[in-house]
Design a protein that fits this description.
mainly beta; four-stranded parallel sheet; three-stranded parallel sheet; 7 strands; 0% helix
Length: 89
């Protein structure tokens, strides 16, 4: 996102493996990423005059034998300059 914003909605998404990686770049703009309750999110990056927030909550009650609902890990590699990145459920 450059001088603008965007939303990535992954709430209905799934991945074949245990984890996936998303690269995010925002300059003078913002990106919002929405993830399912049972995903674990790790943000790696450096904000320059901006911010990165992980506002997710893990659903501790998700205990099921359904393999599609097992915890997944989302790794976000980010560069944020004068903008923002927010991840939430």
């Amino acid at each position: 996102a450059i001088m603008g914003g965007g939303t990535i909605d992954l709430r209905q998404a799934d991945c074949e493996g245990d984890s996936m990686v998303i690269d995010v770049f925002a300059i003078w703009g913002g990106i919002e990423i929405r993830v399912p309750l049972h995903w674990q999110v790790n943000i790696h990056g450096t904000p320059i005059l901006g911010g990165m927030e992980n506002n997710t909550t893990r659903d501790a009650l998700v205990q099921t034998s359904d393999a599609s609902r097992l915890p997944k890990q989302l790794i976000i590699k980010s560069s944020v300059i004068m903008g923002g990145l927010e991840v939430k459920n």
